[in-house]
Records
---
Amino acid sequence: MNQRPIVTEKMLGCLYGQAIGDIIALSERYDARIIEWVELAFKSGDISALELDEPYTMGYTLRTLAAALWCYSHSADFTSGLLAVVNEGGDADTNAAVACAVLGAKFGIYNIPPYYVDNLFNEPLYQQKVTSFIEKALA
């Protein structure tokens, strides 16, 4: 099944509508240090350019942002994005958590391998909370 929930379509519409120039302009309003990471994420086809395992700044928030944007821009599917981030090392659990949130929004829940969803701790509770949130967001 390759369908995405309606809320995902709305979220992606916002991101798809933002060209890299628009994202950079938004970054300039908050912190110019963001710009180099946004550019690197979108322009580099090789995730290793992000140096996610660089030991002195591997927990750096902007590296995590860049990893998520790289996955959004370059991943063909959920699993390839997840594996690309995790295999780069560094703060892999944090980078993967944020990147997978973006990948899930991009590809939809039905394109996340069932193994990952079915083995989530407290999965029924998360489903209930997400469903409640979506219902409120669409109300």
Note: Helices lie at 6-16, 20-30, 33-43, 61-74, 78-87, 92-107, 114-118, 123-138.
---
Amino acid sequence: MKAQLHLAITNQFEAIHAMSEAVEAFCQKQGMDQHSLMSLNLAMVEWVSNIIKYSTLPHGSHDIEVKVALRDDAIETIIRDAGVAFDPTDAPEPDLESDIKDRPIGGLGIYIIRNLVDAFQYTRHDGRNQIIMRKALRSSEADKPTA
């Protein structure tokens, strides 16, 4: 049996801290290095924050399902919610060249997530958004000597 963590959290910002702590503890038990762990955890916090901020249905509260599992030499996370459909893979790349005053607001969170994890995919099935993120247990950054 593979190591797994299953969480159901409410779409409230207060739930993010407990999720983050549980994911951190799970990933540490699997031997994930600190750099990879921080990257994955930040990506998950950003995505769940987006769900809470933008995906709320008219009826309000809904659960967010979080699954974390060890798959080969990586941690795979699956985050599902029944909120408003949104495919982040269709989001355009943000303009990083223009003066910051001339750039539109938004879009950097998805860009940051894509750059923090090794794989990022979206599907919508049975009225639920599903994001799968993968991050290797050991990053190349962890092998670099510190100054």
Note: The longest strand covers residues 63-71.
